[in-house]
Design a protein that fits this description.
- The chain has one domain (3-143, 168-198, 243-254): 3-Layer(aba) Sandwich (Rossmann fold).
- The chain is an alpha/beta fold and 255 residues long.
- The protein has a 7-stranded mixed β-sheet with strand order 3-2-1-4-5-7-6, with helices on both faces.
- Strand 4, helix 5 (116-126) and strand 5 form a beta-alpha-beta unit.
- It is built from 10 helices and 7 strands.
Amino acid sequence: MDKRFTFNEDVENYEKWRPTYCEELFEDIMAYSHIEQGKKALEIGIGTGQATIPFVNMGCELTAIELGQDLAAYSKLKFQDYKNFTVCNTAFEDFKCPDESIDIMYSATAFHWIPEEIGYLKAFRLLKTNGTLALFWNRPFVARENDELHQTIQGIYQKYRPSNTKIIENDTERYNNIVKTIQAYGFRDVVFKLYHLTRRFSSNDYIALLNSYSDHRSMPSATKELFEAEIKEAIIKFGDVISVYDTIDLYLARK
């Protein structure tokens, strides 16, 4: 099954535990794009609307795209009082609208699901000249390298989901590669910014958070049950509190 559809399996859990984004990020997007009431905005991968409120409150004519049927239905209901909001239950690859008709296009922790050569080319085509592309991702990290709980949890991950890939909190190579990719597809005036937030969870809440991620939900059920039990036990052992440090990377560009 396409992992993108796993987000659609438990909408209420997704809505409760997926992180929102800091006000400063949206202020920077608004300042860069000079977006205002009546301008046409397109959100790619709305989920349950963690990044939607600032744009509908601004008065943009916002069209949101969502692949998951239940997620789309949830967002339609959530934003039903906004006459300037429409949600389309489709993939960005299949979405249709006139070329050069969008003032701002943005995507919150979703654009990586679209093949690069399709996503960037289509974004460029649909945006008006001088239109803004805003892409941002939240990347959560569990505590710090010298934190004993962090080390314990990393050991549990290696036991059940072994990987040689080391996740880097401030991944300069990743940031530079995304900037170069955006530029390679014709966008200009690229701006990159980082933001940091901290969240704290109990063991039960942290397991609920894990269940909002596709790679976790796609684990074999027996393995997933054992994995979650050990994670929960480790957090309880350290006072039933775990810190999650969010690193949010934002990329702004103009057509």
